[in-house]
Write a structure and sequence with these properties.
The longest helix is centred in the C-terminal third of the chain and has 21 residues. Strand 7 and strand 8 form a beta hairpin. The protein is about 40% helix and about 15% strand. The strands form four sheets. Strands 1-10-9-6-5-2-4 form a seven-stranded mixed sheet, with helices on both faces. It has a three-stranded antiparallel sheet with strand order 8-7-11, with no helix packed on it. Strands 3-13 form a two-stranded parallel sheet. The chain is built from twelve helices and 14 strands. By secondary structure, the protein is an alpha/beta fold. The structure holds pyridoxal-5'-phosphate. The site of pyridoxal-5'-phosphate (PLP) has 17 residues, from helix 2, strand 3 and helix 3.
């Protein structure tokens, strides 16, 4: 059942991005699954992706019995290192997943060049990069398709939520048909709980209380009293038809409002990032070398600290909303990474980043005071060497 609000949300997002098709889903990971399945990815196919991602982005590959093949990242932008892609291409490679980590665009020139030379399609994971540009072109418009997330911590939120976008009419038609034929609808309980959560989120979450809210939220989530971002069953790598879920009406209505506010949200995030840049540079913090031709919109502002564990332990007391993305090459995997075909040492840069990087908020509720306190805090911990 695709209602008017959902069509309106999809159209608004497609217009904002400048592409012809957008399809809304219950979550971003469901959009990834829809794209892969519509592309015909199946058993034994290999998918190249950075070894520094969310495990929920790898699950759809596993659900389709395909194989993730990890490539290490560039240390400055945390994105797939194009120089290391070709060595991983085999006869079974079907797709390159380019993720724009934290909001930094991946090196799209080099990636699209490899794509052309090997006849391999590219899917962009733009979940953390809404409005970022690479040589003045928006992320999510380079590859054949892109996925987006409306989860609580992303650039815009629909509670949970996701979108698949494409400029390719044939692929668009396949995604549309797949959704029509196979997607289940969220239950009344799921949509009502989610709308209560959206209300609570607006009312109570602001930087100083985030840590507390998150722990309450996790506890409720474990007790199945809220719609969690990830269900434990998902980590079993077994496809449950309930996973492939359409977007609900309330999410779409929230999404329409979020798209209306998107440009001011993006401007705010750009200002916050510039503020962090300036404050850190003032303190002689070692700054990463970010090329001029990328203009990132950061979902979170990453910093490499000398002692991540200490930073995490002290953050709540210092009233700093410190994020931990990504804690390991496949963030928040609850099972051994080997079950996801990742073996320790595969991506040394990603492993180092996971040990060092914490991140600070850029969202609309964060202001200059939040930035100053965050910078003061990481300076007390000190930079990674
Ligand atoms: C959040 C995220 C996803 C998944 O989005 P959900 O809406 O939580 O399913 C996928 N990839 C990246 C890089 C993300 O940050």
């Amino acid at each position: 059942m695709v209602t008017n609000a959902i069509l309106e949300f999809e159209q608004a997002f497609a217009d904002w991005l400048g592409v012809s098709h957008a399809f809304a889903f219950w979550k971003g990971r469901v959009a990834i699954y829809a794209i892969l399945k519509a592309m015909g990815i199946g058993e034994g196919d290999e998918i190249i992706l950075p070894g520094y991602t969310c495990v929920v982005a790898v699950n759809p590959i596993k659900f389709l019995a395909a194989k993730p093949v990890y490539v290490d990242i560039e240390p400055a932008t945390y994105n797939i290192d194009p120089d290391k892609i070709e060595a991983k291409i085999s006869k079974r490679t079907k797709l390159i997943m380019a993720q724009h980590t934290y909001g930094y665009p991946a090196k799209m020139d080099a990636i699209m060049d490899i794509s052309d030379r090997h006849g391999l399609p590219v899917m962009e994971d733009s979940c953390l990069a809404v409005g970022s540009t690479y040589k003045n072109q928006k992320t999510g418009t380079f590859g054949i398709a892109a996925c987006w997330s409306g989860q609580w911590n992303k650039t815009f939120t629909t509670g949970v939520g996701g979108l698949a976008t494409t400029n390719d009419s044939e692929l668009g038609e396949k995604i549309r048909r797949l959704r029509e034929q196979e997607a289940c609808q969220p239950t009344f309980k799921e949509t009502s709980l989610l709308s209560l959560q959206r209300m609570a989120h607006r009312a109570i979450v602001y930087p100083q209380t985030t840590a507390m809210i998150q722990s309450v939220f996790r506890w409720l989530s474990d007790k199945k009293l809220v719609v969690g971002s990830s269900a434990t069953s998902e980590y079993k790598q077994q496809y449950d038809p309930a996973f492939f879920k359409a977007m609900g009406l309330g999410q779409a209505r929230t999404g329409i409002r979020a798209v209306r506010r998107l440009e001011s949200n993006i401007d705010h995030r750009r200002r916050m990032a510039r503020l962090y840049d300036a404050l850190l540079a003032e303190r002689n913090w070692p700054m990463p070398n970010i090329p001029d031709h990328i203009d990132p919109v950061l979902a979170r502002y990453p910093v490499r600290v000398a002692d991540k564990a200490k930073a995490v332990a002290l953050a709540a007391k210092a009233r700093v909303e410190l994020g931990t993305w990504f804690e390991c090459p496949l963030h928040q995997a609850l099972v051994s990474l080997e079950k996801y075909d990742y073996f320790e040492g595969m991506c040394p840069q990603a492993e180092q980043a996971a040990r060092e990087v914490v991140n600070l908020p850029t969202h609309p509720r964060a202001d200059e005071r939040v930035a100053r306190r965050g910078v003061e805090f990481v300076c007390q911990i000190g930079p990674a060497r």
